[in-house]
């Protein structure tokens, strides 16, 4: 369970962290030709998705050795993964645009993700928290992780988790698109 | 019918100091706004283009002249659609190809041929167009078998040949050039010149920024004299260039 969590956490954080640098590192392209700028963000997403597919071998291996409590929930993994990645991408897009303007944001974000790592049930079981379960209930990352990890280990995510995932994806993308609409043209001036 | 129209275009470039780049400082300033009267927020705004109104029509070969920092390169970037004007409108029709940095998008680890394709895509060619032209481009580079070796094994002269050959194969309605591209040894230079002229004759509008009088005289029929972000004069090349030269020598 820990191994599976780490693989997905790695996907989430590497998409977000690299998206921060997506516009900054592509400054050469952005300043020399008129390019569709979403390309650079999708580049970061796609690259990390391919890396994730390699890491996914670990998950398959773990499941093959230790098995799952209930194989019938595995099909839920796919919509879960789609939601998971949609959420990672909007966070990346928002972070990428703001990072182009404020260069200390990538460091701030990686520090915050490190903190989020400790309050998200990756290295520990949710049950170990006893009285402090609210830490997980109010942690959006915990819900996101449950969307992909739950189905694989035989625990179907509950309605709250699905709702959090869907609402976050929709609201997040609206925010990301609004920011994009407003600031996309400013990016060549910033990088 | 290709055309570019600029209407009251202004471009304000933000120049960031270190503190202007920091979200932390930015947020910290929110708290004490007003208490310290003139707080420097670390951003200086430079007006690079100031109220430009201009129409370029088919057949125009425009030479951009002016001193360093007059806004020539910024204007090219606005025409290319890289900088969206901070004020005013720009209208253009036709395929615009900026050749500001011809080596952009080259990848060290890919072979010469792969780089031709990469660079072609970046210039806006379609896959079919690249397939159609690649043999002609490859022949022009005279690199032969080297084309199948990775770019990191190339000398700088070979790189330039490669970049030049593919960049000049593009079909543009509107061509934007920043200084003329000088390439390689004497014999290749001659060949390159011919190809450059051919490229320009295919384009309907050419805008060329250059400090070289001879180049402007050779290639352009109009001149646009930029001075501190404004248009000083725009008209037939001979007249404008003569007055520009006079102003230069007068200091």
Entry keywords:
heterodimer; A: 191 residues; mainly alpha; 9 helices; 76% helix; B: 251 residues; alpha/beta; 6-stranded mixed beta sheet; 3-stranded antiparallel beta sheet; 8 helices; 9 strands; 37% helix; globular
Task: Describe the structure concisely for a colleague.
The complex is a heterodimer of chains A (191) and B (251). By secondary structure, chain A is an all-alpha fold.
Overall body shape of chain B: globular
How many beta-strand runs of chain A? 0
- Report the sheet with the most strands of chain A, covering strand number, pairing sense and barrel closure: none
The total count of helices of chain A amounts to 9
Distance between the termini of chain A: 41 Å
Q: What is the count of DSSP helices of chain B, taking H or I runs of 4+ residues?
A: 8
Order of helices and strands of chain A: HHHHHHHHH
Strand % of chain B is: 25-35%
| Proportion in helices of chain B | 25-40%
Assembly category: heterodimer
Output the radius of gyration of chain B.
21 Å
Distance between the termini of chain B: 41 Å
Rg value of chain A? 18 Å
Q: Indicate the mean pLDDT of chain A.
A: 90
Strand order of the largest sheet of chain B: 5-6-7-3-8-9
Sheet with the most strands, sense and barrel status of chain B: 6 strands, mixed
Unreliable stretches covering 5 or more consecutive residues of chain A: none
The counted number of beta strands of chain B is 9
Account of the protein in words:
The complex is a heterodimer of chains A (191) and B (251). By secondary structure, chain A is mainly α. The model of chain A has no long low-confidence stretch (mean pLDDT 90). Helix content of chain A is 76%, strand content 0%. In chain A, α1 (2-25) runs antiparallel to α3 (38-66), α1 (2-25) runs parallel beside α4 and α3 runs antiparallel to α4 (77-101). Chain B contains eight helices and nine strands. The radius of gyration of chain B is 21 Å and the shape is globular. At the A-B interface, α2 and α9 of A face α1 of B.
């Amino acid at each position: 369970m820990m191994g599976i969590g780490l693989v997905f956490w790695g996907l989430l954080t590497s998409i977000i962290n690299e998206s921060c640098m997506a516009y900054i590192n592509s400054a050469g392209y952005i300043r020399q030709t008129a390019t569709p700028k979403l390309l650079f963000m999708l580049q970061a997403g796609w690259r990390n998705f391919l890396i994730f597919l390699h890491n996914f071998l670990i998950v398959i291996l773990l499941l093959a050795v230790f098995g799952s409590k209930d194989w019938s929930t595995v099909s839920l993994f796919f919509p879960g993964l789609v939601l998971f990645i949609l959420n990672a991408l909007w966070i990346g897009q928002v972070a990428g645009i703001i990072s182009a303007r404020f260069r200390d944001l990538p460091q701030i974000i990686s520090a915050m993700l490190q903190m989020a790592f400790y309050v998200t049930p990756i290295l520990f079981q949710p049950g170990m928290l006893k009285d402090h379960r609210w830490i997980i209930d109010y942690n959006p990352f915990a819900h996101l992780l449950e969307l992909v990890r739950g189905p694989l280990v035989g625990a179907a995510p509950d309605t709250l988790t699905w709702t959090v995932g869907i609402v976050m994806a929709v609201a997040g993308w609206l925010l990301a698109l609004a920011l994009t609409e407003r600031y996309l043209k400013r990016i060549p001036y910033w990088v | 019918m290709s055309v570019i129209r600029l209407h009251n275009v202004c471009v304000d470039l933000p120049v960031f100091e270190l503190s202007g780049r920091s979200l932390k400082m930015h947020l910290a300033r929110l708290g004490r706004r007003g208490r310290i009267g003139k707080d420097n927020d670390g951003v200086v705004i430079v007006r690079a283009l100031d109220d430009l109104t201009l129409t370029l029509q088919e057949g125009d070969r425009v030479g951009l002249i002016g001193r360093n920092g007059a806004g020539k390169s910024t204007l090219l970037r606005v025409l290319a659609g890289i900088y969206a004007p901070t004020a005013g409108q720009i209208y253009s029709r036709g395929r615009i190809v900026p050749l500001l940095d011809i080596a952009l998008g080259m990848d060290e680890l890919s072979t010469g041929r792969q780089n031709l394709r990469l660079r072609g895509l970046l210039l806006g060619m379609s896959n079919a167009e690249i397939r159609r032209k690649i043999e002609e481009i490859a022949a022009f580079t005279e690199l032969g078998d080297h084309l199948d070796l990775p770019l990191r094994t190339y000398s700088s002269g070979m790189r330039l040949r490669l970049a030049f050959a593919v960049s000049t194969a593009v079909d543009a309605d509107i061509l934007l050039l920043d200084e003329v591209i000088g390439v390689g040894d004497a014999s290749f230079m001659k060949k390159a010149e011919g190809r450059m002229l051919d490229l320009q004759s295919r384009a309907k509008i050419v805008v060329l920024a250059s400090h070289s009088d001879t180049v402007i005289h050779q290639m352009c029929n109009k001149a646009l004299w930029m001075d501190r972000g404004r248009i000083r004069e725009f008209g037939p090349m001979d007249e404008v260039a003569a007055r520009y030269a006079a102003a230069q020598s007068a200091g």
